[in-house]
# Entry
Amino acid sequence: MLSNRRVIRPLRFLVLLVSLCFFYWVSGFPRTYDDDELPTSLRIPTPGVLEPEQIIVSVKTTTSDSWSELPPLVVLTDSAYHDSLLLMGDSRLTVGPFTVEDVLDRYTDSFVEDNPDMERYRRTLEFAHSSVDFAELKEKDRRKEKGVLATLDKYKMLRWVERTWLLRPERPWYVLTEPNVHLVRPNLLSWLGTFDPDGYHFFANPPAPDAAHTIVLSRGVMKAIMVDRPDLIPYYDNNIRGHKNAFEVLTTVLFSTLNITATMVWPEISDYSPATAPYGPGLWCDHVIAMSNMPTDLMNEMWHFERERWNRPNDDALCFADLWFRFMQPENLDPRDNWDNLSSGTGYEQWNILFDRKRQHHSDESAGRAKPGEGSWEACRDSCSENEFCVQWSYSSVPMPNDNENGETRCHLSRSMKFGQHVAPQQVDRSGEKATLTWKSGWEKERFQSWARQQRCKSPQN
Ligand SMILES: *[C@@H]1O[C@H](CO)[C@@H](O)[C@H](O)[C@H]1NC(C)=O
Ligand SMILES: CC(=O)N[C@H]1CO[C@H](CO)[C@@H](O)[C@@H]1O
# Structure
């Protein structure tokens, strides 16, 4: 009997194993997932939160940048959003399963031939016909290249809107953006869910030099220009040249035909990346919807970060505070040599701390002002640590503008915390003399962290 059993047992075990495997295989079919295990985009909809296909994201690029910009963008965009992703360029290409549209192909041949602004487009088409490497289209001088692309962008603007609508008509929302913009989709879906898509809505980030625009248009606006006024876009062909930039072309058309202006959305939509956002009291619990100037490595970090958050389904909307804890807190923030100057820098003036130049000692009038720290980086660091509002400093080897009444200074103090970046020493011309400009930067991490820990962005039950 015993020996008999011994034979049967392994057999039974095998049968059990096979049926168990079968059970797991079947139950692994993705229909029976617990709701919490699913990525945000696939969960049962919360009322008011839109579904991915209700927002068309249309990304504009140019042929010579397509290969460097589009593959990372597509890989780092969750597949739940692929159906609603459109790629718009200036020659027809494919990037894997995606088609890049040539949005300029509706201009007439004579318009393209006779218009000097279309030079780059003409060359792009020639290169495409003769299989010349598109990288050779680019100007060597980066500023010149920017100028060429900005000119072409003016002609793309309305045609980009048009093509987006024609490919995906009648969707509640259209987001027009660029490859270096990262969209935090769950926040975008819940934010736009609070507006009526059939009203006239036109949102954008405040214009900033060198920053991409993220533009949001409602179905109401799109219908008014695409369906109610079918001749509008062709009519504008000959009115484009005089405009300063692409955004102005769009704002002019929407203002003159619909009497609407862009509603600026900031800081939810901004030109910051996690490395350049000025973290602090003015920018902490705000939700992050779109960031621009994103290098690919940070896009990749964001992809991982958002995945980690999926596994914590009770997390609230991603806000700037989350970015600080994820990207800055783990960093060693001891003083760094050859580190960028984000304590000065245009666009950050409102956080700069003014120096108390008149008095040696603080009085009521000079409250909040800092002791000058021109002498050395150590003096600058000490000036920061002695000022209760200061969370970071940078020290330049030659005086540099502070963009406020501080004038030119070596020491730059700030009330907001930015990460910045490595910056190599450079030769500069200071009133006729050559000098080497280097930057050193430091942070008051402990001070900032104790402030950060006292903040409560999330709903009280968490
Ligand atoms: C345009 O909009 C403004 C502000 O909404 C309004 O005051 C004005 O009357 C409008 N003009 C026309 C012509 O509709
Ligand atoms: C981000 C920033 O403000 N960078 C500035 C650093 O300083 C150089 C000049 O040395 C500026 O050109 C950058 O804009």
Residues 1-11, 13-43 have pLDDT under 50 and may be disordered. Residues 335-453 form one domain. The chain has two domains: 52-264, 335-453.
